[in-house]
Amino acid sequence: MFFVSDEKMLDHCIRWDSYHIESPDRMTVILDRLKSCDLLDNANILPSRSASVEEIEIVHTRDYIDQIKTICTKSIDEIEDYCKTVEDVYMNENTYDLALLSAGCSIDATLSAFKEKSSSFAVVRPPGHHAFPSVPCGFCWFNNVAIAAKHARSSGAQRILIVDWDVHAGQGTQECIQGDNGIKLISIHRFEHGNFWPNLEQSSVDHKFPNTINVPLNSIGEDDSSFISIFHLVVLPTLIDYQPDLIIVSCGFDAAIGDPEGEMKVSPHGYGRMTRLLMNTGIPISLILEGGYFLPSISRDAEFVVRALQGETFPILPTTPFSSTLNETLRRVISSSSPSTLQSIKYLLEKSGKTREPNTTSPEYKGSRIVPDQYPTREIYQEKTPEEHARFVIELEDVMKRYEEEGTKGSKIKLTISEESQFSIKETVEGEIEIFTSSSLHPLVHSTIISYLNPETSFSPSFFTSPSTQQLDIFFEVILSLSSHSSFSHIPLIRILTQ
Ligand SMILES: [Zn+2]
């Protein structure tokens, strides 16, 4: 595992206000936690490096880059005046240099993971995924993830999957990678039918960007169970369809417990498990820090991501039925995906007769964007009261304790691949699970069932062949018959076909 960061990036901070959620403390608590747990002792630490202007130009226009450089040399009042003309950013005299440093570290971490067939984590700021080719946005100046992906393409990567689990839509990345069929984006984000920032219709399931799959969340409070279900029903099957040679994660921690922006409930174990599921594909993976604002959560989230990258095992998390809004979103994502994507899942969902619930005929996007004459630059974010802070710390600790006490280490799975028995699954009296499957069904079975029952199992998607209709029909009948069995009924694929 490669790791890169640089405490110089702490010098990017707001000068004209006493509080901002995108604070240098975010980076400090993460670095302190990783050091205090000795988690970086075995990591391959990369030297930090600033990107050159030419490297940034792979995504951003030269005029934009020059403009940022010039504004950074002005007085703080002039800088604030500039920030009133663009959406939700701050800047000080260091920002241009540190945005180059943030991008340079992201490029090197990503190329190291790709070339060495390994993993990397870049703890950087300012973040990047809201930045457009010629406009900054949402705390972001240069789009680190898009820049890193484009440089990986230049270094030989044929197909790159970007998984953006930051709670805000990766709308900047969506535009930066537009038209490049060698890069695909899956963005999982709070949406509330367009009533959550950035309130854009392009963050819906249905949009005009062929290489982006959006998973918009229309309710707050989605937890580990929801995110893991999205992984098993959308992310891992897409990964098998697309077969990337590199995965890049826009690794925000603002869907975490206590986060004032996301208001979701993902735990450190949840982030660890999502990381592990991606790693188990054997595809090189580069994680690049984005948002995340509840300091007690993000330090533990980063810790569990690194523990996962270093191969630690975690207890399996209990799962719950989907919320009705997530159920609707998942159905919409699967049924609206392009013909080459999620084919098998789509077929099974159609066969279940539950492709579209009646309420999904109502418009998906109900938001509106209000563009003010001047964007506010002060007192936009409020600090939590000490009572609120303490309440979320207790919630975080309770969830972590519960997992350690109640979680299991996964089922023992015996897998038999045989062309004669196309698919069956049973649990032995010893609690061992036996799965018989044909080779063409195997990747689908792995991504939806095996890796769910035991997230530690590694797999290689390289042998993928599409299952035949007949095989899928058999698979469908067997998984339906398993839905009443308590050992299997919580599997997300079974839930979505029956719920
Ligand atoms: Zn965010």
From TrEMBL:
Positions of region (Disordered): 350-370
One BP annotation, GO: epigenetic regulation of gene expression
Spans traversing the lipid bilayer: none
InterPro entries documented for this protein: HDACs (IPR000286), His_deacetylse_dom (IPR023801), His_deacetylse_dom_sf (IPR037138), Ureohydrolase_dom_sf (IPR023696)
A GO cellular component annotation in the UniProt record: histone deacetylase complex
Pfam families xrefs: Hist_deacetyl
Reaction(s) the record says it catalyses: N(6)-acetyl-L-lysyl-[histone] + H2O = L-lysyl-[histone] + acetate
Molecular function per GO: histone deacetylase activity; histone deacetylase activity, hydrolytic mechanism
Protein name: Histone deacetylase
